[in-house]
Fold:
Amino acid sequence: MTSKKSVGRRRFVKLCASTAAAVAAYPDSLVGAVNHGEFYEKVQLHDDENNPLRASALQPDKNYLFFYPFISTPCFLIRLNKPVQREVNLSTRDGSSYSWPGGVGPGQQIVSFSAICAHKMSHPSVQVSFINYRPEEVQFAGNDNRFHRRSNVIYCCSEGSVYDPADGARVLGGPAPQPLAAILLEHDPRTDALFAVGVAGQSMFDSYFKTFEHRLELEFKTQNITEAARGSARVIELESFCARQILC
Structure:
């Protein structure tokens, strides 16, 4: 079963990441972020033409997508219009705490999060995406039971969950019980290259594989949807992947 393969792979990677050698390879900020999370294989982000992506080439406030830490798990890559230079303390549904290290790259503006909603796992597919980064001002019902207007949020129109990408994808409103899992990034200032190295917070990967297994096999044309991303991951614009985006 796919879910069994996934669980087995995650346990193996987690075991490897727990060794002193693996931990020593990462900055303290990233090690602290996986108090509740995991390191995965380090993958370099490439552009649409499969050349190494330069962080400075990312356009601010644009929806970018790549797949990590598995070939079928979508992630948002966003260059915000402001720096995020602070560590953010967050907690998962079960109360486990973790730290999100903030933005990377030029101006510390670049952030990345799993594009699998923490409520009912709505995610971008080739047909449609109900979850999107929204740079324009939108209205939503907040956790204080009042209506708010905010720009620069990740909005899941499936059930109305709203996340703040400048605050570690903290939940601003809607039924989501926890933040989106954060994708940990490294930036090489010498080459301006970006790398994905792990996940912080509570991922939805096992439930995602179990729930959408057969559709994912068709969409990605493989029965091995739990295959780990290796070497490089191609970054594309969300609109190039999805035929339609639902905006609420």
